[in-house]
Amino acid sequence: MSQAQIETIIERWMSDAEFRARMQTAPQATLAEEGYELSDEEMQALDKLDLTAGDEELLRQASFGG
């Protein structure tokens, strides 16, 4: 999984309320609409994140040490 790509998505999540709301309801569609191209493995990892978590928890989940 691309750490830089996930960090970019998380940073956008934290700074863009509209993006966050779209991600919570339709993450795969939102990423595709925004031009993010994730591999199947990256999408599976993203699917494991709790998108209802607060920013700090989401960052912890997204860190590869997890």
From TrEMBL:
One of its GO terms (molecular function) is transition metal ion binding. Gene3D superfamilies: Nitrile hydratase alpha /Thiocyanate hydrolase gamma. This is Uncharacterized protein. It comes from Devosia subaequoris. The lineage of its organism: Bacteria, Pseudomonadati, Pseudomonadota, Alphaproteobacteria, Hyphomicrobiales.
